[in-house]
Write a structure and sequence with these properties.
By secondary structure, the chain is α/β, with parallel strands linked by helices. It is built from nine helices and nine strands. Bound molecules: iron/sulfur cluster.
Amino acid sequence: MAFEQPLIRPPSEWRSGLIRVTRGCGWNRCRFCGIYPHLGEPAFSIRPLREVLADVAFLHHHRPETETLFLGDADPLQAGVATIAELSRHLHQMFPLRRLTAYARASTLKKIGRDGVLQLAAAGLNRIHLGLESGSDEILRYQRKGQSARMIREAAGWPREGRIEPEIESGNFTPQTAEGTVLELQLLLRHLTVEGPFLTCDHANNYISVRGTLPQDRPSMLETIDAFLSQPASVRERHYQEISSSM
Ligand code: SF4
């Protein structure tokens, strides 16, 4: 039996041990995506727990000091609360973990329910990446995201209640300009009223990179953006071209 790894992981998990719980995406219908079929995983399946545990044993044999682990692929919580909770507890027993992360869909959180999410938090799952994409129902419908703004608002609050860190991604079906993404980030930073979350632009295709905890790091992040935007348009355009050509 070969060791299997998730096909995709968040950029922040580049040093993490990667555990594949499910294969591909169970939804696979978002208009802008198609990434798993493109990478050769057209169907969704849940791996038997004994296979996953064999991979965990392999990882432990080679990297017992691992402090961060990521569960993939796109929707591992589809394996069920009991399975993920058992796996999470096992991983915390095996490794000196400070972070256990998974991707999740808002609709899966909704299916699991608040109690299920809190059970997972209690078992040690402490970070979830949710692809929110938009707060507009019209855009979500057009993009076939399979979730509504109301569902996101409800389900995205449960991880925080269980002290699981959400990370937030946003987007729009109308192609945004490079400068538009920088202005959106500026607007977002000016108006976010939440306290405590860590905001980071840690992907190679982000046109500007700021990171910090809100609200205390807001001024320095805005200063970085203001300084960038105060450069001549030709300089900014050259920067956007350089980032685009490195994608
Ligand atoms: S849920 Fe995520 S992985 Fe699945 S199709 Fe949509 S964007 Fe792609």
